[in-house]
Amino acid sequence: ALAVSLRGVTKAYDNGVMALGPFDLAVRKGEFISLLGPSGCGKSTVLRLIAGLSAPSTGTVRVSRHEGVTRPGHAIGFVFQEPTLMPWTSVRENVRLPLKLAGAGKAEANARVDEALASVGLADFAGAFPRELSGGMKMRVSLARALVTDPDILLMDEPFAALDEITRFRLNNDLLALWRRLRKTVIFVTHSVFESVYLSQRVVVMTARPGRIGADIRIETVEP
Ligand code: ADP
Ligand code: ADP
């Protein structure tokens, strides 16, 4: 079954820039795919269309939940390159925000926040403030915030690009372990060939020609 499908999708921004298309992509439920390609080829545009943050100029974007088809934007967690945490509130409050917006009850919200923080290795940092955390830890908070609503689909836009190599590798390993446990659909935008091959089951290479896919490669796990 498909988690996401884009068919004949084009996107022209108001300034006339043809950012995408026509573009086709189908992602299966539980699949971890990477989008790779030069700056400006439309990777972020694809994520924004799937998230429902932007509407296609033509074509269709479909996102399905376990129960069936839903509007783009539902059932989605989004992690940006910048952790975009609220500086004046604790880690706990930052992670709780999406639940608050969804109107979750306090007891349930607390339990989910604790679970999300534990899943990214930050169980002991609920009371900390963003300024007290390293870049890698801020990214973990951002990931916990994306996971706290238990979305079916996780969209990640160059999430680790600003981190040092060792921190980045640790996060790669933890994300992979998390995916193996949770089996969410992940669409991961990166400029790193290593990261795309190491993390994902499938690498889609976009080209500088809007919407044109240069390669769509299945990666078989090399581990025993
Ligand atoms: P299943 O996995 O249940 O066999 P498919 O993956 O073949 O189903 O297709 C599920 C739905 O997605 C169908 O409605 C089909 O028309 C649509 N679909 C299939 N391939 C694509 C594609 N490449 N792009 C967009 N939508 C697709
Ligand atoms: P990528 O993520 O691959 O770097 P983007 O999807 O961000 O690519 O951008 C694709 C193209 O659309 C680029 O030419 C970019 O300058 C343009 N673009 C992106 N967002 C906007 C916007 N909000 N308004 C106008 N043009 C945009």
UniProtKB/TrEMBL annotation:
GO terms for molecular function: ATP binding. Residues 4-224 form the ABC transporter domain. Keywords: ATP-binding, Nucleotide-binding, Transport. Involved in beta-(1-->2)glucan export. Transmembrane domains (TMD) form a pore in the inner membrane and the ATP-binding domain (NBD) is responsible for energy generation. Belongs to the ABC transporter superfamily. This is Nitrate/sulfonate/bicarbonate ABC transporter ATP-binding protein. The chain holds residues 16 to 239 of 271 of the full protein.
